[in-house]
Amino acid sequence: MSVYLNGRFLPLGEAKVSVLDRGFLFGDGVYEVVPVYSNKPFRLDDHLRRLQRSLDGIRLANPHTIAEWRERILQLIALQDFADQSVYVQVTRGTPGEGQPPRDHVFPQATPPTVFLFAQPLVTATPAQKAAGVCAVSAVDNRWLRGDIKAISLLANVLLRQRAIDADCAETVMLRDGFLTEGSASNIFVVKDGVLRTPPASNLMLTGITHDVVLELAAAHGIPHEVRAIPEAEVRAADELWMTSSTREILAIVKLDGVPVGAGAPGPLARRMDALYQTFKQEVMRA
Q: Who contacts 109 (Cβ-Cβ below 8 Å, separation ≥6)?
């Protein structure tokens, strides 16, 4: 497998980063994950704009223009021997230079960032998973208050996601002060009486690219939808509950905390939206 590290494409086994890199010591960095279908990145410019917002959020200068990022990502994709990929992009604040403290909370001066890219096979939900749906658990959203930054310091998300895995479920649905925020690694949609609902963008959640596509498709196809605060009671009384992400795409949650959601099977709106999404995806890939 070939990866990209600080200006070079090289085998994964040869990629080395200093143990003093601030990404390693502090989790001081941001990342993106770009789905790739048949060697074509999906909504790449949207992902790169979100990367810019995350970099702005941690006050780290972007080391590349969008054109430069695109060139490097396309080169990385071409080097892989699998067509459907998940491309991971990470930028950290780098390793302090000579004369600077090796570990100090203060931003180091004149330190080049560490830029790392790698690709792995894209694993999406199987037809069987889509047909059956998945279960989820709920938990208090105890993460920091800048969930809108796609930061590499993901320990809280890791612990919340593991809570779901320990319960043989796919996701943890997070609630803060009695309202829905998101999943540990996804956005969450609620359907009630034919209306699609999702929380508004805020500092408490990361708005996903797939999440945005779902809202675009709802608007384009006349599906009633609302973007507003969603109380916990509405989550638990939902007719349908979905998780969305770049890798899971649209996946129905059919059981929450052991209680069936709606009829306990993927609902009609989830099936319709998934069909619309697959069609849209194919059109984008053909363009």
A: 100
